[in-house]
Here is the input.
Amino acid sequence: MNVLVRLQTEDCYIVKSKKALQAPGQLPGVGLSMTDLCKRLHPHIPGIIGTSTRIYDEVCKFVCYSTFKNSRRFFTHRLVDGMPCGKGRICFREKCGYYSTALPPLPTLPTTSATTTTTRPTYYYNYNAYGSN
Here is the structure.
């Protein structure tokens, strides 16, 4: 994971959209079309279209393509969790299956009880208080 994070450019982590696309409580790909995602991933390419094939659906991928001067450019991308991958299924963590579009529950963290520190008075005893031998 450390290597993957290091390979990404700073632009990868910048949120460019000011509008939230996600439906509350739903996976991020619910209601997002491949063409809309292509336009967001490649805003500089006019006329870009998103499509998929049965083989790509099985591995939760899709293709963005554009025709420019009688030449086609293709870009392969991963489907976002919640996007359809054929036959009533959706992608979730790069696997196509019959999943719920609701967000999975957040993990519960163990709760710690508050601890109270009690201090005891320190007593000093002088065993030779009445003189020495």
About this structure: Residues 1-5 have pLDDT under 50 and may be disordered.
